[in-house]
Amino acid sequence: MRTDELLFDLPPELIASTPLAERDASRLLVLRRAGGTLTDDVIRSLPSLLPDGALLVVNDTRVIPARLRGVKPSGGKAEFLLVRSKGEDGRRWEALGRASKPMRDGALIEIAPGLAVRILGRDGMMLDVELLADDPWAAIERHGEMPLPPYMHRAPEESDRERYQTVYADRPGAVAAPTAGLHLTDELFAAMRARGIDRVPVTLHVGPGTFAPVMVDDLDEHPMHSEWYDVPEATAEAVRAAKRDGRPVVAVGTTVVRTLESWALDGERTGETRLLIQPGYSFRVVDALLTNFHLPRSTLLALVMAFGCPERVRAAYAMAVALRYRFFSYGDAMLVL
To answer: Are residues 255 and 289 both part of a single domain?
Structure first.
């Protein structure tokens, strides 16, 4: 796929920088692949739009307040984005760092009383750091900031700790939310259960690469980022049963698509995925997709085009712009059936 096919015109005022007062108040654009029809609806209609007996798969990753701001011994400011934990205790991390001057190996940066970051080494752009704290996970929660996407152009607020998180978030490790799930509520899940729609989790810890624009002309040449995923055995069995019984598997978000399709391709329930899905890909597991509207020149948009047909997805995006939908992480959603 050529990356100029991933461009679209978006008025800046349609980028949502704050969430709506209620999670399930978002609008929902429904694309039916069979006929290419587009319908303007609302998230609260989701239980009635999904087929009875469908299997809903969600990503239960939890966003950590991964941005740490501190001061070097020289007095200069330094900032870290914790990307991936190297152990369950949360002491060693792969991190991105930024400062007025390069930070040397061995440097110690104080974040807050009881929390400091030591630079152990580096691998390209990524730093190997150690958190010096009695309880690193608690210190991150206490002193870290939620890593809001750069296009929001604002500092995180206390409310983002709740709203930039799904109601079912469970396993900490993401630096970005699986945004399609931000719309879902316990009330919606209850309505879906009444229609025989079960919910099962997978985990994919979303990394900063999810926001990386494609900088090459041909998507095949894009260096796809790596993310850790896990498909619990109970979820694997539920998916197998749904496919066996002819019940549709509904992915809540592109992260769930990548997780399920990586498992189907590699046969590994846990591992690292660099799967790049673009038009021409043959989907093995996913039958329907709930997703937010994505950035131009992004691999996420390429995935949605692969699932919904490039021409029809472009038409959907044009309709969403014309109807003044809200875009990106705190924006509205699209359901591809």
So the answer is: yes
Do 171 and 266 lie in one domain? The reply is yes
CB crowding 75-95: b at 16 or more within 10 Å, else e: eeebbbbbbbbeeeebbbbbb
CA distances from 94 to 123, 145, 249, 259, 314 (A): 9, 17, 34, 22, 37
pLDDT at 13: 97
Say yes or no: 48 and 79 in one domain: no
Per-residue model confidence as pLDDT tens digits over 263-314: 999 999 999 999 999 999 999 999 999 999 999 999 999 999 999 999 999 9
Which residues lie below 8 Å from residue 18, measured CB to CB, with a gap of 6+? 330
d(CA 110, CA 127): 16
Same domain for 288 and 186? yes
Question: What does the pLDDT look like over 161-206, one tens digit per residue?
Answer: 999 999 999 999 999 999 999 999 999 999 999 999 999 999 999 9
Q: What are the structure tokens assigned to 200, written together? A: 């099962």
Per-residue pLDDT for 125 more than 90?
no
pTM over 0.90: yes
Residue 187, domain CATH: 3.40.1780.10
Strand 198-204, strand 108-112: pairing? unpaired
Which amino acid is it at 147?
Answer: P
| Residue 35, domain member (yes or no) | yes
Q: Which of 96, 117, 144 is the last residue of a domain?
A: 144
Q: Look at the chain and report how many structural domains it folds into.
A: 2
Please report, for the domain that includes residue 72, its CATH number: 2.40.10.240
